[in-house]
What we know:
This protein has 340 residues and is an alpha/beta fold. The protein folds into two domains: 5-139 and 276-324, Ribonuclease Z/Hydroxyacylglutathione hydrolase-like (Metallo-beta-lactamase, Chain A), CATH 3.60.15.10; 145-272, Rossmann fold, CATH 3.40.50.10890. 26% of the residues lie in helices and 24% in strands. The termini are far apart. 49% of the residues are buried. It comes from Cnuella takakiae.
Amino acid sequence: MSLIEFTDRGLYCRRGDFYIDPWRPVDKAILTHGHSDHARWGSKAYLCQTDTKPILEVRLGPGIYQTAGYGEHTFINGVQVSFHPAGHIIGSAQVRVEYGGEVWVVSGDYKVENDGLSGQFESVKCHSFVSECTFGLPVYQWKPQAQIFADIQHWVLKNKAAGKSSILFAYSLGKAQRLLPCLTEVTDRILVHGAVYNVHMALANAGIALPEVHRVTPDTPKEWLKGAVVIAPSSAEGTPWMKRFSPYVVGVCSGWMNIRGAMRRRNADAGFPLSDHADWPGLLSAIKSTEAECVYVTHGFTAAFGRYLNEIGIHSKEVKTEYGDDEAAEKSTELADTIA
């Protein structure tokens, strides 16, 4: 029997009697991070990395939350569990599970470039590695973050010169915080949608250092709205909330912007391929560094990516889970965050 089983509730460790990122309510859930496709409501107790707790509290509400720092060992029914940096968003972690000399690592979502906020991805040696492959095709290869930030800054300054507001669509958890250091270099005031503000304040109140932002409300001074720099979730697209910034242009921050035509399909004026997931080279380097005997690929281009791994001599299996694209998963959560 494997140390980790793939069940209809989620990834289950029978020996420890806990689940990792379950998509059904369970007694004991260990979470890799706070995005809504991995952190779901209804379980009796949660174990997460320390910086993820404030995110869970604002999104899942009151509950039993146990935390651990990176590299700290927790024993559950004799099974050793530890969190290791995944580099995906603030508080994101890979879950290392060990018992009887067998080691599994469930990576959740991850990226290998250090964004200066989410921590540096840590390679963890293991026998079995569970990996996402959201962008598991060779066409997905990211530019360095510094280059993308320079493109965003140039775009904002061009819009300002033309008397237009710059609205950047970005996930309320993760990318919105990642953009802040970039934008503070070209504006002295960053306005944000309520969904972004709620996550921002949960993190700031927990002691995480972030630049100041201003929530857009009916009382926001009108002079702030013209030529503004705004971060909003994609759920705001096409809503009356946007009209107050006219004239405005829209930029979408997403790895999907790496594909020609994606910007047009999103009705965006600009697309910035900024992703919180590993690209094709990043996935391959991360997987190879684990030296895993078997790699389980999930949520993404699983068939194509798994087949490639097998072709290059890395034993791989495709597994079905209920994790998905952050953007689709986050839209309903962002709406809830707005009214929270």
